[in-house]
Amino acid sequence: MAAIPIVVKHQGTKYDVEVDPESTGEIFKFQLYSLTGVEPERQKILIKGGQVKDDTPMSKFNLQPGQSIMMLGTPGKDGKDVLTRPKEKIKFVEDMTEAEAAQQEGAIPAGLTNLGNTCYLNSTLQTLRAIPELQNALGKYEPQSTALNTTGLLPPLDLTKQLRDLYKYMSETQEAYVPHAFLTALRAAFPQFAEHSRTGAGFAQQDAEEAWSQIVTQLRQKLRVKDSPEGAETSFIDKYLSGEFTSELVCDEPAAREGGEQPLVSKETFLKLNCHIDSSTNHLRDGIANGLSEKLEKRSEVLGRDAVYTKTSKISRLPKYLTVHFVRFFWKRETQKKAKIMRKVTFPHELDLVEFCDDKLKSMLVPVRDKVREVRKDEEDIERARKRRKRNGADDAADIPGGKGAKKDEKKDKKPSTSADGDVEMGETYKTDAEIDAERDAALLAAKKELHALIDPELAKDDGANQSGLYELRGVVTHQGASADSGHYTAYVKKTAPVDAKTGKRKEEDGKWWWFNDDKVTEVTADKIETLAGGGESHSALILLYRAIPLPSAEGTIE
User: Fold this and answer.
1) Cα distance between residue 93 and residue 95, in whole Å
2) Neighbour count for residue 130 (Cβ, 10 Å)
3) Cα dihedral value 351, 330, 491, 242, nearest 10
4) Which of 57, 216, 369, 455 is least surrounded by Cβ atoms within 10 Å, i.e. has the fewest?
5) Cα–Cα distance between 142 and 415 in angstroms, integer?
6) Contacts for 32-39: CB closer than 8 Å, 24+ residues apart
7) Residues 6+ positions from 149 with CB-CB distance below 8 Å
């Protein structure tokens, strides 16, 4: 079939184009790209008969010789990037060093070699590595002088330095790394991890939660950060991983209160929330609630004897990174082992802790949390509408230049016109899809700016705290087996979106996870995380690492 000559108008310029009726819309768009510099995905072609989609045959539009159509759109970045030579020389994977290849998008992260019952440590290290602020702070860490001390002996190995070096080496390879130096430093600092097995040769299995707690405690002492060059140093752990309880201790006996005994209010720091498991615990929320109320016995000065008190805790500071510990192990006297509670306890990918906060913090978090949910609903509605229009496509297109325009429920502008007898008539002008999307995007941006303005100034100053009360799950340490002294530990870490080389911004995450099983690293879907609630000797969650959800900046953008 012969090509049809038509005229395409774009920004005041006319282009003569020959269209092959047997070709597709994609080929036609590339023809226009070569003439105008507007990328195909940025083109909107106004043509009678429907929208020009990539897979639409051009014969559908019954184009006539000399027919004029219009194209809207501008080149990306004002056309500066159109057909320009790359600024940096392209390097192929075969030519990259091992360290460079490990940094590329899609690279598999390094696993850790099991050095004999060290899966408890490997899973802990992989999950802690999911905290980018920790890796940045470790990169700047410089240990104190290693000169001989007054006894003439070398000081013990610096665990924080060993962690810094370990993460650095892991970032430069996709092969399994042997954490021998770090394990040596850990056993030197905490001899409990050097205990030998009672049932055979080699070292004994250990509790991953104990390893986690000891490493975090060591980092809390050694690793310091500054908010600004002139600012005071603070503990990295205190800033990003520690929360605060406000607790009230009240005597259970009315006689003490009638005698004038006042509740004792105190504040204390926590590095993890415990999920206590009993016969009624089915969900993480139940276990956290159990852990925030406890009974204890102490002397009452008013009663002159020991009495039972109830200690109730409310959270007065939520950290940016929250550690949750499932208290699954208990000491079983008959077997002289840490036995495991097998009960199934589900946990969410998004955790809302507002209900567990004290009144002051709750009043700061609730407006932000509610606005986050409102903005999310708006985003979902916009995306749903776009998908619906894309799915309907040309079937719903109005037979007018400019495509199908707005649906009936979209806002219309009425413009006056004059009839033949001089009377004024009201006409309707439909908005194009692009105009509708632009209006909705502008409204969404305004809502995100409003969300930022709702953040309490006191909370806004604390960038190591959670400012909404909402958390997203980033890592899980699991245990398989019947006791803490046996079985196997692994870790699941959510994949981080790669950074766009052109814009410097992170792309959207694909929702998948890395499963670290010692030296074996496998990509899994989010469905796998749902199977880690327990209920038997299979893999069940022992430690959860949550991160505060990201909030928009004053400009309405999210990092």
Assistant:
1) 5
2) 20
3) 50
4) 57
5) 71
6) 32/8, 32/71, 35/8, 36/10, 36/71, 36/75, 37/75, 37/79, 37/82, 37/83, 38/10, 38/71, 38/73, 38/74, 38/75, 39/75, 39/76, 39/82
7) 155
Q: Which of 10, 119, 275, 276 is catalytic?
A: 119
Check if 452 is active-site: no
Tokens of 355: 């209900």
Q: Is residue 534 within 8 Å of residue 540, measured between CB atoms?
A: yes
Tokens for 367? 């407006």
Q: How far apart are CA 559 and CA 557, in angstroms?
A: 7
Grade residue 404 by pLDDT with cuts at 50, 70 and 90: very low
Which residue among 251, 275, 479, 488 is the active-site one?
488
Q: If pLDDT is split at 50, 70 and 90, which confidence band does 85 have?
A: low
Interstrand relation of 273-276 and 321-327 (parallel, antiparallel or unpaired): parallel
Q: Which pairs count as long-range contacts for 39-43, CB under 8 Å and 24+ apart, including other chains?
A: 39/75, 39/76, 39/82, 42/73, 42/74, 42/75, 42/76, 43/71, 43/72, 43/73
**Is 119 among the catalytic positions?**
yes
The answer to whether 316 and 363 have CB atoms below 8 angstroms apart is no
Strand segments (E) across 261-409: 264-270, 273-276, 293-300, 305-317, 321-327, 329-332, 337-340, 350-352
H-state helical runs in 393-464: 433-454, 457-460
Strands lying side by side in the sheet with 13-19: 13-19, 4-10, 68-72, 44-46
Q: Which residues pair with 547 in a beta bridge?
A: 321, 472
Question: Could you tell me the pTM of the whole model?
Answer: 0.76
Instruction: Provide the pLDDT for residue 455.
Output: 94
Which DSSP symbol is given to 298? E
- Report CA-CA distances (Å) from 446 to 441, 451, 553: 9, 9, 12
Report the pLDDT averaged over residues 318-337: 84
Helix (H), strand (E), coil (C) string for 220-239 = HHHCEEECCCCCCEEEHHHH
End-to-end CA distance of the chain: 52
pLDDT band at 73; cut points 50, 70, 90:
confident
When mean pLDDT is compared across 163-177, 238-252, 373-387, 516-530, the lowest value belongs to 373-387
CB atoms within 10 A of CB 215: 21
Average pLDDT over residues 143-169: 74
Please name the residue that has the structure tokens 């998948």: 512
Q: Which residue has the higher pLDDT, 312 or 95?
A: 312
Closest CA to 434 of 414, 392, 404: 404
Which distant-in-sequence residues (6+ apart) come within 8 Å of 558 by Cβ?
448, 550, 551, 552
Assess contact for 312 and 295: CB atoms under 8 A.
no
The token pair that represents 32 in the structure block:
């226009």
